[in-house]
């Protein structure tokens, strides 16, 4: 079968030391400090096979390109990959996907029916492969599993014709069948994972909002746009997006954003205070990946607003230090929380239900491509901000 694989050289930066979960030459939790000279290839490899009774063989129908895919394939002036997290190469990229069941083990249980999966079931998958028995998993925090592996990062992912996944990570998409045609159903299904990242950030980690609260989202990429959609569904009175791209601002308004501001041409702080009548926002989401650029405005909004008790959620990955003014957060009774991943707390089924009830995230898909075109778009997405989500489809 065809697959898109990333190869890279294990060549740690000076001073790097293996962590307790790193494996010399194979896997690290600090990708940008180890992997060098990434190369993406479309290859012919054997089709995977089920090896355990709980596993399911899926025909991949749609898989989106994530910013992490782009950053794994992108290198700095010294040749090191941009992505800072868990990585093990070579690996088949791709983790935002949907597909249909081709074969299922006898113990592969479908949560929709509480019975074994049947051939033809449309599904999506979590990409974080949590163990379920470490302390963090037992405490209900699978996103921080001590034995974590990730599809498309250190385990072969879904930029391929087929993939094998354990059934405990799969979620049925049958609920979408009344609202989406089959092709669109699989496109929507491929967006469950990134939308669940946004849901985890603003609802689970950020604590959600009360209907009538105001929110500000920095960054109109897929996660930022998904967060806007979720927050509008949650009752956001004024959902405000800061995003330089006109294309992305237009899409944001289509999915329910009340005000989309170009921070390069408008005074963002003044705009937010005007729209909220001086009260500011209850929740601020950092989804840009450049916190050092947006932080000054973010703190100014909190400080100048009449409101208190704001929560700042950091969801974008960025190995960047940001100077924080403690006085702002003390006086304004504000807090900062980090958000990683998408699993747990019923995130996936709730996102699927939101999509079934009318939250159509397929509006953010700019283009559908073939597997052979993935390497080209991994490069284009480094600079072309008019492309929001590019999705590979297999029919």
From TrEMBL:
PROSITE patterns: ADH_ZINC. Its cofactor is Zn(2+). It comes from the Bacteria. Residues 52-173 form the Alcohol dehydrogenase-like N-terminal domain. GO terms for molecular function: oxidoreductase activity; zinc ion binding. Gene3D superfamilies: Medium-chain alcohol dehydrogenases, catalytic domain, NAD(P)-binding Rossmann-like Domain. Residues 222-356 form the Alcohol dehydrogenase-like C-terminal domain. The keyword Metal-binding applies. Keywords: Metal-binding, Oxidoreductase, Zinc. SUPFAM superfamilies: GroES-like (SSF50129), NAD(P)-binding Rossmann-fold domains (SSF51735). Belongs to the zinc-containing alcohol dehydrogenase family. This is Alcohol dehydrogenase.
